[in-house]
Amino acid sequence: MKKLQMYLLGALIFCSCTRPKEVKQEITTSYSFEVIDSLDLNILGDPLIIDISPKADLVVFYDYANEEFIIADFLGNIVNRFSKKGDNPDSFGFLMELPGFINDNQLALAGMKGIFIYDLEGNMIKKLAHPESLGGAGFMTFSGKGIETVLIDGKQYLLSKSVRTRDTFAGEQKFYDNFRAIELIDIEAEEFIEIVPFEQNSQFLDGNGYFESDYAPAFEAKDEKLYIALGAEQRLNIYSLSSEGAKLDTIVKLTIPGFEKLPITSRSEFSKGTITINGGTPAIRNIHIVDGKILIQYYCGIPEDRMDELEVLWNSGDEEESERLYDQVENEVIQGVLILDQNTLEVIGNLEYPNKVNKSGFASGGGYLWMEKAPNDEEEEDFLRIYKVKLAEK
User: Fold this and answer.
1) Using CB atoms within 10 A of its CB, is residue 175 exposed (0-12), middle (13-18) or buried (19+)?
2) In terms of domain of life, where is this protein from (predicted)?
3) Can you spell out the DSSP letters for 49-105?
């Protein structure tokens, strides 16, 4: 898809949780994405790149067409592929969170039936039951976004999106008071600790109603710190992690050029047991930490008047014209990556994607970014190309 130029000035407001203060800066982009290599895999279709192994020698993909996981090396060889279709004891059911490497030999993912850990041949190593039984779920998938791991006092934990209902729904105040975005999962003890509420002054505490996609978490953990943003909220919350849970350390308020506002929705429009996801609204979609840089992937959203136009056209029954117009509108959406220095939290870059890459996201590992070539709209290709990308200082 085409991309509007993003070499704009970024603004940063830094707030300490104990001593609030504001620091405003105009920052020029001092970094660029540099494609330094590519890898071709003999894979049909359009699988998503999800995660890189800790040693940065393996990569995992998910192929939606075949409901299949594909593990490959960086010589272009497919190491293994497996599927968990059907109602088997080791089947995860409806996939709710894409896989991430726990170590070089194991993958974890979240499904309706629980949190599952498999080896690279697809053998189930462990299954952890969700803290609540689930009546339904929904999620959006993006390249490079899967379940996360973190070391706390030398012990490995999983970080997964929380799907607890807490006996409430988004039409009630109780939902917003009790909301927690993430589960901190002790693999060994099989214990779940819910963390990350809507913090004080969050826009999601303003009395309006919000859909799941409005506050879907984007997060990354590093050195016992959790870096997280909630959907359309333009701020980065940084927590200290321990075996007891999470403590908010810092809030970084962000200004993303062109970032749309969420439509106002009355809580009366929500009903218990329903899940609504809107992929066209603004959101911070993913976070990566690479070589001391925090990379915040954002999608500025489709303007509300354009969304109304698309809905009217779709309801008219002209599906072909609706899809054509949607593609046109989607091409106009500003998408990019905001770059912060991990130590100072200063904004040091605001980059557009390289040409001809899939803008749904990217994986990171080994000090590099790994981006997929955009699909060929004219014909199906019999290979999948991955670009090795470096964050280069100008």
Assistant:
1) buried
2) Bacteria
3) EEEE-TTSSEEEEEETTTTEEEEEETTS-EEEEEE--SS-TT---SEEEEEEEEETT
Tell me the angle at which helices 319-332 and 304-315 cross, rounded to the nearest 10 degrees: 170
3 occurs within a structural domain: no
Range from 134-138, 191-195, 230-234, 315-319 carrying the lowest mean pLDDT: 134-138
Query: What SS3 state is found at 176?
Result: helix
Q: Mean pLDDT in the chain?
A: 89
For residue 238, is it within any domain?
Answer: yes
Number of domains present in the structure of the chain: 1
> Bigger pLDDT: 110 or 381?
110
CA distance 388 to 392: 12
96 CB-contact burial (10 Å; exposed 0-12 / middle 13-18 / buried 19+): buried
Q: Per DSSP, what are the bridge partners of residue 34?
A: 390
| Average pLDDT, integer, range 327-336 | 91
- CATH code, domain carrying 254: 2.120.10.30
Mean pLDDT of 353-375: 93
Strands 225-230 and 235-242: antiparallel
Structural domain harbouring 237: 11-393
